[in-house]
Amino acid sequence: KSPMCFWVEQIMLVFFVLELSFRLRMKHCKFFTDPDDRYWNLMDFFIVLCGVFDQWLLKIWESLMEGENHRNNNIGQVMMLARMLRLMRILRLLRGGK
């Protein structure tokens, strides 16, 4: 994986975290209960949360557990799924969805 890809992923994740934060602040509880956008909002929330877990929290965990092999293959598969969902989110945003 090239350093350029790493930084592009980080910048996009920061953008999505900020965008989600602004939407949560604007809509409050309605973000999760709005009948029109509830499922899209839940999917966006889950995708961004998985991205934060994959890109930031797992890296912190790995650095804390340096030298110990605690990483399970199942976590890697779940994170691959989360990355694919993030790609779907990007495509939805490019298509002009909500």
Structure summary:
Helices cover 81% and strands 0% of the residues.
Q: Could you characterize the architecture of this molecule?
A:
The chain has 98 residues and is mainly alpha-helical. 81% of the residues lie in helices and 0% in strands. The chain is globular.
Low-confidence stretches: none
Helix-and-strand structural type: mainly alpha
- Return the average pLDDT rounded to an integer: 80
Silhouette: globular
Instruction: Give the biggest beta sheet.
Output: none
- The count of strands amounts to 0
* Helix residue percentage: over 70%
Q: What is the distance, rounded to the nearest whole angstrom, between the alpha carbons of the first and last residues?
A: 31 Å
* Strand and helix order: HHHH
Radius of gyration: 15 Å
Number of helices: 4
Proportion of strand residues: under 5%
Give the SSE layout:
Layout: H1 3-27, H2 30-33, H3 38-64, H4 73-95
Main attributes?
98 residues; mainly alpha; 4 helices; globular
